[in-house]
Amino acid sequence: MKRLLLLFVLGVFFSCKQNITQADMVNLNGYWEIEKVVLPDGEKKEYKINETIDFFKIESDKGFRKKVMPQLDGTYLTNDVQEEFVVVVKDGEASLQYKTTYASWNEEIIELTKDKLVVKNQQEIEYYYKRPLQFSVK
Q: What is the value of pTM for the model shown?
């Protein structure tokens, strides 16, 4: 009986992955700051301060990600380097399929809300993002 209960609890725990739709993808737009990284062995790396944050922009099923540097006046420094991707949503699962001149890779979206983003890459590394707080000395 205990084994059945344990299997049930584990099944519920592992099936709690968010069911993502195309309509949810609008939440990806904007600025995202990395909060932590979880390696496949469970090791965690916390990020307290980030010199760069990610900016995502999607339209329909295509988009890009760009690294930007927040400034004290509330603006962002940026360059022309961006990683373009295609959004694939199927059966409640979503992924970003990147392709650059140098490489191609996929990131599975585990969770996406207006304030939280979790993606997992092909090496099973999970990246946890939050919306950055804007700061200004004005």
A: 0.82
